[in-house]
Design brief:
single chain, mainly alpha, 0% strand, 79% helix, flat
Length: 109
Amino acid sequence: MAWTYLIIAGLLEIVWAYFMKQSMGFTRLWPSVATLGFMAVSFGLLSLAMKSMPMGTAYVVWTGIGAVGAFVVGVVFLQEHLSPMRVAAALLVVAGLVLFRLAPDGTAA
């Protein structure tokens, strides 16, 4: 169950990052409220995942999902710049996430 919480927390990190961008520096009310709400749920699920998995694994996976997801959302929905180097960097993050998932850490999958 910890991995399920962690993946959902990572996906919600993408959502709150998107709304943070839309809040224009917390100057727009509803995107700001959405940012804080999704952030709270994301942190809560991360904390549940950390109850039964190593902190390092949980944090790296959570931030990795958020980083790569925010990159994709930025390119697809916000027309942010896409270059071969940025794609390579995102793929390296994904490779690191896969390695963290496959590495033995003493927890059950």
